[in-house]
Amino acid sequence: MATTRLMKLHMDKGSSAAGTLNDRFNYARNKDKTRDGELTASYGCDPESAEAEFNLSKAQYYAVTGRVQSRGSDVLCYQIRQSFKPGEVDAETALILGYDLAMRWTKGKHAFFVVSHVDRPHAHTHIYYNATTLDGSGKFRDFLGSAKALRRLSDRICLENNLSVVQNPKLKSRGKFKHYGEWLGKDKAPSFKEKLTAAVDTVLSSRPADFDTFLSRMNHEGFEHKWGRSGVLSFRTEGQKRFTRLRASTLGAGYGTDDIIDVLEGRKMPSGTQRKTSSRRVDLIVDIQEKLREGKGPAYAKWATVFNLKQMAAALQYLQENNLLNYSDLEAKAEAAAMRFHDGQAKLKAVETAMKRCTDLREAIIDYAKTRAVFEEYKTQKYSNRYLAEHESDIAVHRAAKAAMKELLQGEKLPKMESLKGEWASLLPKKKAAYGECRIAQKDMREVIAVKANIDHLLGLAGREKSREPER
Questions:
Q1: Do 221 and 203 meet the contact criterion of CB atoms below 8 Å apart?
Q2: Mean pLDDT throughout 366-394?
Q3: Are residues 153 and 204 in the same domain?
Q4: Does residue 175 sit in the same domain as residue 207?
Q5: Residues 348, 435 contacting (CB under 8 angstroms)
């Protein structure tokens, strides 16, 4: 398995082309990384004098074509980085695969050299190929999708050599060594932030009596703490150079200093418990007998039985966590959740309606202003049919805009355009807030209704009206 990256090398500021290439190539030709130059291969050039040869071919290109590019846009050469999964290939094999990749990618038209480095836990190669062709008549043109094409070529070479390939690759990586961390899988060491949040969850689960006890137990977990100038608490563990601040923006929701205090004083549940609870979803149980009558087989019945047991367990857990020990409390919560969702829907619809009115009124005012001169001339011509035929579309737009303004204003004074823009801008954050509240309310409503439906099925209340309050 290999990941690839294609880069352009431009001339550095305050440096010459030869100086820029020399700096880059010296990094690649490092004796310690290439075993005294043993892990080096080339085509059409000598790696030790590659910068001079690349510049010579560039001068030939200028002489043959007469094309001179500006200093900033001129590409001196291209670099390919190819990194392999740790332990899958050695440095020598990586060099062979890198040379094969370079030859196929350039099709033998460009000079290049390849180096394989041994300074990392994973084998990787650096490929530098000249932007100018060997005969000096053309240049390599980076095309749309070149990174994807390079990755496909690398994957093909890996498959030909019985190596794995990256499944569902992402061309743009977020963070340094992202794919290298993915390669490690379960063996990947947790980050310092992950260690800190895990320690906080562990300490809070032991229910410390106060904040001082919390800090003492964090110390036993291997974390030292300090208070910053702004009053922010920070922690640091073994092997960590800098302290990590205990705040939600750094560690995530529920891990701020105030959140910890709320948990210790009983106003909140620990964040670890909240994440586990939120990840569980309660679904409606399956009517197994009805499905069997529809033609489902014994295998489906077995699956549905296990599924129903899991959903009933999740429903009972929901009742315990929300202290819904009476059926009447569950009914009240379901009705309140449904009412909250419908109220949120109505609020969102009202804001959207007001925003649509602003948009429609602005469009109507613009259309009215654009076609007003035409309509005034139409009146001056005493509504001439000939003039109407020549300007029928503008007159129709004018009349439609006037009718729309009358309907939207409902007798109110025509507002200024800036006032409408300001009103629409003030409604936008209200819409976002209402939409967020509506989504949360919908999620809560679906969950509590699913729990109630499952409990109704358990108590035998599904499909008929309750004649009395069931016993607890």
A1: yes
A2: 90
A3: no
A4: no
A5: yes
Structure-token match 């529809």, residue found:
294
User: Whose structure tokens read 């001439």?
Assistant: 384
How far is residue 159's CA from residue 161's CA, in Å, rounded to a whole number?
5
Domain boundary among 141, 163, 184: 184
Residue 152 sits in the same domain as residue 51: yes
- Residue 270 maps to a domain: yes
Residue ranges making up the domain that contains 149? 2-184
- Between the CA of residue 339 and those of 333, 336, 345, 450, what are the distances in Å? 10, 5, 10, 16
50 and 128 in contact (C-beta within 8 Å)? yes
pLDDT for residue 104: 93
CA atoms 337, 343, 344, 349: torsion sign = positive
Tokens of 376: 């005034």
* CATH number where 131 lies: 3.30.930.30
- Tens of pLDDT along 155-186? 888 888 888 777 666 545 444 444 444 545 55
- The domain tally of the chain equals 3
Q: Looking at the structure, tell me whether residues 33 and 152 fall in a common domain.
A: yes
At 472 the pLDDT is 39
- The DSSP result for 353-409, as a single string, is HHHHHHHHHHHHHHHHHHHHHHHHHHHHTTS-HHHHHHSHHHHHHHHHHHHHHHHHH
Separation of alpha carbons 20 and 13, rounded Å: 9
- Whether the pLDDT of residue 395 is over 50: the answer is yes
Can you list the positions of beta strands (E) in 67-192?
A: 75-84, 112-117, 124-130
Q: In this structure, are 272 and 388 located in the same domain?
A: no
Residues 123, 248: one domain? no
Same domain, 230 and 180: no
Whether the per-residue pLDDT at 340 is higher than 60: the answer is yes
pLDDT tens per residue, range 20-66: 788 888 889 989 899 888 999 999 899 888 888 888 888 888 888 87
Instruction: Please tell me whether residues 104 and 232 are part of one structural domain.
Output: no
